[in-house]
């Protein structure tokens, strides 16, 4: 095993994970409850509310999810643990569960949140009512990932600090 590659993958996984999951927690702190957008928020793309939404959703976190997931899978592969994690075998079961949760979270970002967010931001043509509806979906999608991050972090830590519980 190449120690330098392993170190690079660990730091890429760690830093990208902080950016990705940190974005979710930041969103919860800044906007703890859902406030529906109004048509006025979406019609005037210079309104303070729309600009705040646009600035928050800059896309950095989406690519951080890909880097986090790829670095994690590459680390498992490099250690020869990928098949055991996928099959949830023995002491690799916790990290495998974490991998599945992380996969769901990344798919949620790219296939639920982002397509709707593009409509909210006006990057994809949509009527005002559709954009308002999509803003609710993006909010729920983001909160789903925030809630999934709790068991994800638990199982990631359990992979190194508790896998003995499962054999």
In short:
The chain has seven helices and no strands. The protein has 167 residues and is mainly α. The mean pLDDT is 87.
List keywords for this structure.
167 residues; 7 helices; elongated; mainly alpha; 77% helix
Count of alpha/pi helices = 7
Give the overall average pLDDT.
87
Q: Main β-sheet: number of strands, strand sense, barrel status?
A: none
> Which structural category fits the helices and strands?
mainly alpha
- Please mark out the parts with pLDDT under 50 across 5 or more consecutive residues, or reply none: none
Beta-strand segment tally: 0
Structure description:
This protein is mainly alpha-helical. It is 77% helix and 0% strand. The chain is built from seven helices and no strands. It has helices spanning 3-30, 39-43, 48-56, 60-78, 82-86, 93-120, 128-161. Helix 1 (3-30) runs antiparallel to helix 4 (60-78). It is elongated, with a radius of gyration of 18 Å. 32% of the residues are buried.
